[in-house]
Amino acid sequence: GTWRDARGINPEGAKPENALTGxxxxxxxxxxxxxxxxxxxxxHWFWAHTPVAHLEENQSWVLKAGLxxxxxxxxxxxxxxxxxxxxxxETHIDNVMYLQNHGSIYDxxxxxxxxxxxRHASGAWTFGAGTVQWSWGLDDFHDSxxxxxxxxxxxxxxxxxxxxxxxxxxxxxxxxxxxxxxxARPGSPEAHLVLPPVDASAGRCPRNGLMVEAEVKVKGx
Length: 221
Prior knowledge:
single chain, two-stranded antiparallel ribbon, 3 helices
């Protein structure tokens, strides 16, 4: 099932997921597709310091293959779409497994995917990648590095592998822009990244009439 499932198995009733994330799950596919960013999105701050910002009229920038899959979403006007939702990309794909109900019946169909972004009345930003593989653009280690499902590529080893295409610098920069808008900044950024000014108001949130500030440090490899 899904959050939108109105059957009795969902005791709180239907809560379509796009009310939170901005998009709704509709596609289940092992396609290894890129994300396309048409020129009309070039002026958005999300794409600052990336090749998208320099597109000419009628051009599109093609991000790394594999970002779109294996489950993807759509921006659907179902009455739960967040107010002020902004689209950041547009990719049309034919011949995919397209969901026909709340989460169990599929048929062949076509889909149009969008990266989306919106800001809540509280000031909080929500980014919806609409794909489970956006992180494939951030580094070069993930499952299915060749675009083939792991159980088909090698049934004896389904571990993560190295993607010879490497990370996508536009995805890295866009993610950096997004986190800066949310008030976060990398402590040890890679040399090619441009660090935009951090939104000083993003780390503050109202709680019971008070303004609460917090600092979070994350360490890992």
